[in-house]
Design goal:
Length: about 290
């Protein structure tokens, strides 16, 4: 039988710290994940009273997005979390926390086009009109299936960086990019491709939530439970909305999304998207 002192020691034993190791992405691409890791840290902080302390560190070796996904699937991979747009593959291989950390913003798409083609796009009024033009996408991206399902012609490129050159070489007519991707890419690649522009009149929308994913094992299940609890707290107390407005608002405002023609597409490959919870989703101008 345990002595009273031993029982007290057991009761007082501190909870072991939750260990989170998140990836370092290649080059300047890594800065685009700063918001994701801020949301992650905040969710962990919100759950300290219920789940105990945590450590959060970035893995030191830079990796491509493909390598990040591979590491998360490995039983002893060097990271245990990633932030990515949902896909059937990730939902099968990893454990998603089904609260969109970007409030679904990634599913709103503006178009990178050639400046000479701006008048052509200004005449687009429907998906039927858009079907006369060719989209460019990376090979195997989740967006390819979405656009193809809508009957939109798609040209696939083997590498992300090649798509801008392909656009300017007339291999396709537009590159549909996330709201917070397009402006960054104009700054990053605009000097090389000065005739590339963000089309000002159209907005595509399809369900493409950005989730936190963890490994499908016992440790991952515990981490997922904690992060789900933390994100729910952030939704309820307004923290997620506040971070979204602070970090995404300055990106959204110049694009005037609420004044664009909205073309809505289905995303047939996804399941269990919490669309019945409007508090989780961004909606420009209440559209």
């Amino acid at each position: 039988m345990l002595s009273l002192a031993a029982c007290a020691a057991v009761r007082a034993a501190p909870k072991s710290a939750t260990k989170v190791v998140y990836p370092l992405h290649l080059g300047s691409y890594d800065a685009r994940y700063d918001y994701d890791w801020l949301v992650l840290r905040t969710a962990l902080e919100k759950t300290v009273p219920a789940f105990g302390p945590f450590t959060m560190q970035q893995f030191g070796e830079a990796m491509s997005p493909q390598r990040v996904a591979q590491e998360l699937v490995l039983p002893h991979g060097r990271i245990n979390i990633m932030a990515r747009a949902v896909s059937p593959e990730f939902e099968r291989d990893d454990l998603p926390i089904r609260i969109p950390i970007d409030k679904g913003l990634l599913g709103y798409r503006v178009l990178l086009v050639r400046k000479d083609d701006l008048p052509r796009f200004a005449r687009v009024r429907s998906l039927q009109d858009l079907r006369k033009l060719r989209a460019g996408m990376g090979k195997g991206w989740a967006d390819v299936a979405v656009l193809a399902h809508a009957g939109l012609p798609v040209v696939e490129g083997s590498a992300h960086e090649n798509l801008y050159a392909m656009l300017m070489a007339n291999r396709f007519d537009y590159f549909a990019r996330g709201v917070d991707e397009a402006q960054w890419e104009i700054k990053e690649y605009g000097a090389r491709f000065p005739q590339m522009a963000i089309e000002p009149t159209l907005l595509l929308r399809y369900p493409l939530p950005r989730y936190l994913f963890v490994r499908r094992d016992t440790e991952g299940e515990g981490l997922a439970k904690r992060l789900k609890a933390g994100l729910e707290i952030m939704v309820q107390d307004g923290t997620l909305d506040a971070l979204f407005r602070q970090h995404k608002g300055p990106i959204i405002e110049p694009l005037q999304l609420d004044k664009r023609r909205l073309l809505t597409l289905a995303n047939p490959g996804l399941q269990d998207i919490p669309q019945q919870r409007p508090e989780l989703w961004y909606s420009p101008g209440g559209k």
